[in-house]
């Protein structure tokens, strides 16, 4: 339906979906015109009714999927060709006040400390300033108290963030109470739900927050949740007008590839297929913890008592500091990808607080991981740990 497929068309514009090789047409599934118009990413464009229909269909399927997997109280969804950090910038730009002389000061975004650079970059990218609220240690877990979050809001604040999915020891925020606080203070509230769609518990937290207070937008990655190539996000809102504000913020047209990649994935999986993956993820998460507990008993360590439906953290307090980074390198050499090792004597970034008392390794059993992945990881971790633990008495 796009004009570049019309053999009789006389194309004299500067952007006519011209390509250098048929390989590019194959890679883009033929959506060479992209999506959106210069003023709004969700607006239909006359030269690309095919791409526009594809995007609209994909958005409706995204909304349907998100409602099926935990958020029946959202009103709209938008699939965008940007990963989580840039999608956060887009949402903040759509929700910020119009910066004029009397509102230029309203540039602050309150952020319960979450040690991920893309969050901070996403805030600064659109001209705002993050106000970091420090995490505190509760047993093994790191949380950011709602009282401290409330105290961080002032006359310069226009938005607050909350988070679901992250690595232990950081636990999810009290999103429901933050939503109430946002409603009380009349500030925007964005939930960063990076890989949280796969968790019934995290999705329930967001659903309750929408019902109890103010939630303007929820952002989740397409690759982490729906097994697509990197490059897309789903933005959900409980209010259609809010989504319109966000979509109008996007500058120019957009690449259609991450959109049709999500469309392919969600149609390929289907609701039942995705639910099966969720059930497998839950079983694998239990299995990972059981296996790491066995190792903990052998080496005199413990599993951190932190609520996280995806990840498990094992202390490494008996290893010398110099061996912690070497352990990570050894695991990579053995082709174990994804674990994170933290040494509190070197830096606090990653722990979401200062002075965390344990060194530890984090492993994930995210959606799409298999029991085989876990078994190989456990074997190779034990082999690597045994190698470096020999230096304990040297």
Architecture overview:
It is a single chain. The chain folds into 2 domains: 34-270, 3-Layer(aba) Sandwich (Aspartate Aminotransferase, domain 2), CATH 3.40.640.10; 272-393, Aspartate Aminotransferase, domain 1. The chain is 42% helix and 14% strand. It is an alpha/beta fold. The longest helix is centred in the C-terminal third of the chain and has 43 residues, at 257-299. It is built from 12 helices and 12 strands. The strands form 3 sheets. It has a 7-stranded mixed sheet, sandwiched between helices. A hairpin with a 2-residue loop joins strand 4 and strand 5. Helix 3 packs across helix 9, helix 10 (257-299) crosses helix 12 and helix 11 crosses helix 12 (371-389). The chain has helices spanning 22-27, 49-68, 84-95, 117-125, 146-151, 175-185, 200-212, 222-226, 240-247, 257-299, 321-333, 371-389; strands at 76-80, 108-112, 129-133, 136-138, 141-143, 157-163, 188-192, 217-221, 233-237, 311-315, 340-342, 360-364. The mean pLDDT is 92.
């Amino acid at each position: 339906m796009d004009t570049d497929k019309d053999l009789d068309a006389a194309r004299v514009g500067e952007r006519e979906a011209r390509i250098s090789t048929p390989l590019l047409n194959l890679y883009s599934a033929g959506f060479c015109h992209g999506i959106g118009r210069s003023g709004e990413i969700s607006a239909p464009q006359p030269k690309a009714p095919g791409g526009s229909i594809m995007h609209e269909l994909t958005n409706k399927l995204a909304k349907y999927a998100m409602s099926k997997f935990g958020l029946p109280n959202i009103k709209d969804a938008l699939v965008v060709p940007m990963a989580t950090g840039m999608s956060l910038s887009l949402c903040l730009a759509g929700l910020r006040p119009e910066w004029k002389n009397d509102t230029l000061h309203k540039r602050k975004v309150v952020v319960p400390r979450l040690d991920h650079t893309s969050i901070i970059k996403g805030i600064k990218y659109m001209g705002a300033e993050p106000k970091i609220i420090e995490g505190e240690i509760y047993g093994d877990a790191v949380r950011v108290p709602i009282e401290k979050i409330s105290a961080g809001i002032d006359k310069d604040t226009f938005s607050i963030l909350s988070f679901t999915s992250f690595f232990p020891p950081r636990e999810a925020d009290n999103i429901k109470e933050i939503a109430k606080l946002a409603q009380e203070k009349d500030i925007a509230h964005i939930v960063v739900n990076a890989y949280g769609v796969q968790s019934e518990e995290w999705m329930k937290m967001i659903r309750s927050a929408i019902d109890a207070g103010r939630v303007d937008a929820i952002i989740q990655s397409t690759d982490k949740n729906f097994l697509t190539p990197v490059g897309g996000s789903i933005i959900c809102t409980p209010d259609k007008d809010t989504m319109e504000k966000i979509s109008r913020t996007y500058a120019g047209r957009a690449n259609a590839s991450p959109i049709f990649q999500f469309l392919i994935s969600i149609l390929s999986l289907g609701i039942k297929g995705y639910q099966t993956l969720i059930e497998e993820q839950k079983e694998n998460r239990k299995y990972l913890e059981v296996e790491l507990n066995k190792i903990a008993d052998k080496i005199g360590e413990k599993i951190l008592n932190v609520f996280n439906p995806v990840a498990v953290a094992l202390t490494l307090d008996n290893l010398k500091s110099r061996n912690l980074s070497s352990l990570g390198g050894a695991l990579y050499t053995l082709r174990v990808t994804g674990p994170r090792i933290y040494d509190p004597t070197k830096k606090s970034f990653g722990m979401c607080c200062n002075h965390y008392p344990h060194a530890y390794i984090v492993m994930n059993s995210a959606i799409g991981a298999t029991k085989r992945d876990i078994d190989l990881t456990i074997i190779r971790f034990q082999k690597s740990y045994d190698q470096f633990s020999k230096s304990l008495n040297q």
